[in-house]
Amino acid sequence: MKLYEGAPKASDDTHERILAAARDLFALKGSRGTTTREVADRAGVNEATVFRHFGTKQALLHAMLERHCESQDRMRESIAALRGPIREQLCALGHGAIESIKRKEDLIRVGLAEQVTDPDGSAMTWRGPMGALCVLSDYMKGRIAAGELVGDPDMLARSFMSFWFSYVMGRRIWNVADQPPERTRFVAQCVELFLRGALPR
């Protein structure tokens, strides 16, 4: 009899340790600079175990990115739960997007750095953001259909996401700390700027 039903299996634990090690090394060295032997060493397993779980280095990288990408279904659920005036909804989406980008900031930075030297490796990094963009575009279509916004939904989604991407990825450039009052002001200001171009006249 099991001590408790939620006890993880040893193979599940190994799988997760390999994925965590792959993320650490991918963020540190990029996909081309990371070897499966290094991943195995960091995860505390032998290299054969990495291949038994994932088959190839490319499959490992895909699995690692899938593991750390936001689920489109989860984002749809968040959008479906939005209530209140359009400004409040957009502010909530802005705060949520900032948190999501922050969770993947290390991977995004590597993807940007590898865009020229390793387009295939870089392309994997953008699968999550592209999925999020599609979900956000659907949200914009709904708001346009309701008469709350005007414009091209894809363009609105891209411009809206650009605010939050620049906030997270540009903090080091502008030397701005991510403190709650600063973030709240930034989100409110960006939503107002967005609405100036997207509200019906």
What does this structure look like?
The structure is a single chain. By secondary structure, this protein is mainly α. The chain has two domains: 10-67, Arc Repressor Mutant, subunit A; 70-198, Orthogonal Bundle (Tetracycline Repressor, domain 2). The protein is 77% helix and 0% strand. It has helices at 10-33, 36-43, 47-54, 57-68, 72-80, 86-103, 105-114, 119-125, 127-145, 153-169, 171-174, 180-198. Helix 10 (153-169) runs antiparallel to helix 12. The longest helix has 24 residues, at 10-33. The radius of gyration is 20 Å and the shape is elongated. The chain starts with 9 loop residues before the first helix and ends with a helix. The model is unreliable at 1-9 (pLDDT under 50).
Can you give me a brief rundown of this structure?
This protein is mainly alpha-helical and 201 residues long. It has helices at 10-33, 36-43, 47-54, 57-68, 72-80, 86-103, 105-114, 119-125, 127-145, 153-169, 171-174, 180-198.
Give me some keywords for this one.
mainly alpha; Arc Repressor Mutant, subunit A; Tetracycline Repressor, domain 2; 2 domains; 12 helices; disordered N terminus
